Amino acid sequence: MPILPEEAERIPGMSESQGFVDRARTVLRMEGADVRDVLQNVVTNDLDRLTPGNAVYAALLTPQGKYLFDFLLIEGPDGAVLIDCAADRAEALAGRLRMYCMRRDARVTGEAGLGVALIWSGAAPEGPLVVADPRAAALGWRIYAADPAAALAAIDAVPVEIGRAACRDRV
User: Fold this and answer.
1) What angle is formed at CA 43 by the lines to CA 148 and CA 135, rounded to 5 degrees?
2) What sign has the CA pseudo-torsion 25, 77, 147, 107?
3) Percent helix, strand, coil in the chain (nearest 5)?
4) What does the H/E/C string look like for 69-135?
5) What 3-state class would DSSP assign to 156?
6) What is the percentage of the chain residues whose pLDDT exceeds 70?
7) What distance in Å separates the CA atoms of residue 62 and residue 81, rounded to the nearest whole number?
8) Residue 140 pLDDT exceeds 80
9) Rg of the chain's alpha carbons, rounded to an integer?
């Protein structure tokens, strides 16, 4: 569950000028000529909205409409689609997506080697793969990098480690 900026003030050592590495998230990679067609047919959002610099929030449902997974889709610099999802559910999501890739030029190649950092600020931080959280402006920016802590430091944001215990004590 994301931490809202007004809630971050209650966590010791966290302010708007700081960010944190979200170790509860991982990034999967999908590539191939048919990736967008495959995803367009199985996720709950319109893939036409997926453009460089813009993320799309979507979910994967059963054919009966029961929720299975939610995630963010990001266009990678090489045209691949990156999937920001819960780390503890990543393998199950990848397996489900692989079922839809059969006989199509689309592959889930596993983890993209990127971590996720979150930061709240008015302007987009500089970086190769930075997107606004598409769910709400108050959720700030998501930074995808091989070393997300170093990416935070590069934009003068102090990386703060947030554990589940800090999140659990939220009001």
Assistant:
1) 50
2) positive
3) 25, 30, 45
4) EEEEEEECCCCCEEEEEEHHHHHHHHHHHHHHCCCCCCEEEEECCCEEEEECCCCCCCCCCEEECCC
5) coil
6) 81
7) 21
8) yes
9) 16
- Percentage of the chain with pLDDT > 90? 58
What's the pTM? 0.82
Residue 107 has pLDDT above 70, yes or no: yes
Mean pLDDT of 50-75: 95
Beta-bridge mates of residue 74: 82
d(CA 58, CA 69) in angstroms, rounded, equals 9
* Overall residue count recorded for the chain in this entry: 171
Q: Residue 87: which pLDDT band, with cuts at 50, 70 and 90?
A: very high
Token couple for 140: 């700030």
Sheet holding 25-31, edge to edge: 56-61, 67-75, 81-86, 25-31, 107-111
- Tell me what the mean pLDDT of segment 151-168 comes to: 65
Taking the C-alpha atoms of residue 82 and residue 31, their distance in angstroms, rounded to an integer, is 9
How far apart CA 34 and CA 142 sit, in angstroms, is 26
3-state secondary structure of 49: helix
94: amino acid identity, one letter: A
